[in-house]
Specification:
Length: about 475
């Protein structure tokens, strides 16, 4: 685990550092208004990539990770799952892309942000190509081929980041950036697909496709709901803010993304290995141990960025992109709730169907969307935060409760509650008391808060979070957080 995580971490630091270090240059050249337009197009690309996968990647992970057979008479071993998953992903992606290209002119008229049909077409192409890249790469992670995965993603990042800088420097602006995004995604998709065909082949066998769709389509519904809670709000906000204010918001969101990037090495490892952890020796305790470490890591990352966000915005984007300090802190609170829900809901993924995930996502999305359309027109950015927080909180509660009902696991609830309390208190205190403080004092105060957070987490969840000897096999279940097993 340590070797793979280090490789993932190293590749991600390199890959995202290249991308993130070019971002300030792009933002300063484009300015807040054009940067806001670019942010909306990138959001469209991400949405298309999420939907174009049709949940097939999670279904392949479900069957290929454990090498199970779906049902008598319908074999679905690891190789069949990967081969049919690839064929299904390519077919669904092509059909989806054709439909999107046909409606691009209409979308350009109805979407906010003064978008052009050609720019939307480039975003759609890049999104579908990213879905074709995702399945072969998640199989590499599942096979623990960290070096192959890292090499692929670093080359991909260099193509995109280098192309973006050249396009902006030559004066091609947003069109150049989106052309680079689509071109590099298509090129790397070809490489990924050829690599996967050599490994497992490609197939479309009805008996194997059926279980993949039965498991994957409800997750597609979850993906739609996820976009409603994390992506669609940008389009709604853009319709009610002037372009300059939206550009400022887009810069604040990049600090949110900074935490996502920093957490990604663990997330990549966790997403591909969680089934094997649970199926291995002392699986439940090992799963809880690593999930809890992931929760603590995310809290430390988000707290650091929250407390230092005025300094980070000024250094990265300049005075033209300044926003109130609490904007970023509030967005990071939403990220924390989502991360805790993801890391404590393993029970939802242990059946043959995934309908409970879809129900939870739709319930949370309904709350979020209702809030977006009722609160943003009235309150602006504070309305956005209220809507996102309500949806994330509902998803966290439902995911944890239903997951525990299906498979009770001894997560340290008290330690997580303490982490939330420290984050809220520190973020509020920094936003109201330390505005205008020098960078040295700000960094020192943030370091003290992180030390306090780690110490309190250890005290309240020591037997799970940091067991003696730091070994999962020595853990004992905390009495205060023990969950009664149900038959």
């Amino acid at each position: 685990m340590i070797k793979s995580t280090l490789i993932y971490a190293g590749s991600y630091v390199l890959m995202r550092s290249v991308s993130f270090l070019t971002l300030p240059y792009v933002a300063r050249v484009l300015g807040p208004v054009e940067f806001g337009r670019l942010d909306l197009l990138v959001t469209a690309t991400q949405a298309v990539g999420l939907l174009a996968g049709f949940g097939i990647m999670e279904a392949v992970l479900r069957y290929a990770s454990t090498d199970e057979r779906s049902a008598p008479g319908a074999p679905l071993d690891a190789r069949a799952a990967k081969a049919n998953g690839l064929g299904l992903t390519l077919l669904c992606g092509l059909l989806f892309l054709g439909a999107l290209l046909a409606v691009a002119p209409w979308l350009a008229r109805v979407l906010p942000g003064a978008q052009e049909a050609d720019l939307l077409r480039l975003a759609m192409l890049a999104g579908v190509a990213s879905a074709w890249i995702a399945l072969p790469n998640v199989i590499l992670r599942m096979q623990d081929r960290a070096a192959a995965y890292a090499s692929f993603m670093v080359v991909y990042a260099l193509l995109q980041a280098g192309g973006n800088v050249i396009a902006v420097y030559l004066g091609y602006g947003i069109f150049g950036i989106m052309a680079v995004s689509a071109g590099s995604a298509c090129l790397m998709a070809c490489v990924a697909v050829v690599q996967q065909i050599r490994d497992s082949g490609i197939a479309l066998e009805p008996r194997a496709v059926r279980p993949l769709l039965l498991f994957g389509l409800p997750i597609l519904g979850s993906g739609v709901a996820a976009f409603m809670m994390n992506g669609m709000e940008r389009w709604v906000l853009a319709a009610h803010l002037d372009p300059l204010d939206y550009g400022h918001y887009a810069a604040a969101v990049k600090l949110f993304v900074l935490c996502v990037i920093a957490f990604q090495p663990f997330g990549l490892w966790w997403g591909a290995q969680r089934y094997r952890l649970l199926a291995g020796p002392d699986g439940e305790r090992r799963l809880v141990y690593y999930a809890t470490l992931g929760i603590l890591l995310q809290f430390l990352l988000c707290t650091t960025v929250s407390l230092l966000n005025p300094l980070l915005l000024d250094v990265l984007f300049g005075a033209a992109f300044a926003v109130p300090a609490w904007w970023t802190s509030a967005l990071l609170l939403v990220l924390l709730m989502r991360s805790v829900a993801d890391l404590t809901s393993m029970g939802l993924f242990l059946g043959e169907r995934s309908h409970e995930q879809m129900i939870i996502q739709y319930a949370a999305a309904a709350v979020t969307v209702t809030g977006l359309f009722t609160l943003i027109p009235r309150f602006g950015f504070p309305g956005l935060i209220l809507a996102l927080t309500a949806g994330a909180a509902l998803r966290l509660v439902l995911s944890y409760r239903l997951s525990q009902r299906r498979r009770p696991l001894p997560y340290p609830v008290s330690a997580v509650a303490v982490l939330f309390a420290v984050y809220l208190a520190a973020s509020y205190g920094f936003a109201t008391r330390l505005t205008g403080v020098g960078p040295v004092a700000l960094v020192g105060a943030a370091a003290a808060v992180l030390a306090l957070m780690t110490a309190l987490a250890y005290v309240t969840g020591r037997s799970v979070l940091v067991p003696r000897g730091a070994r999962p096999d020595t853990m004992r279940e905390p009495a205060g957080d023990r969950v009664r097993r149900q038959d």
